[in-house]
Design goal:
single chain; mainly alpha; 2 helices
Length: 74
């Protein structure tokens, strides 16, 4: 038997499951970032300085969600 011979696939390809999982992860992360931005605006409208920190942090996290992973390669 050839050890490098390809096996027959009897299951759903992993990339199909992975892409759906990545989509759900992206949607959940974007939703949480938007909720954090709303809290930041609420704190800012109440005159609390922590609103700026929340807006800055969740804006950064939102931008990271849509950036290319190769941008962070060293």
């Amino acid at each position: 038997m050839d050890p490098f011979r390809k096996r027959k696939k009897k299951y759903t390809p992993f990339h199909a499951v992975s892409s759906q999982r990545e989509l759900w992860r992206l949607l959940i992360n974007v939703t949480l970032c938007l909720i954090g931005l709303v809290f930041g605006f609420v704190y800012l409208m109440n005159g609390l300085i922590i609103g700026w920190l929340l807006i800055a942090a969740f804006t950064f996290f939102l931008l990271v969600q849509f950036s290319n992973p190769t941008d962070y390669d060293i």
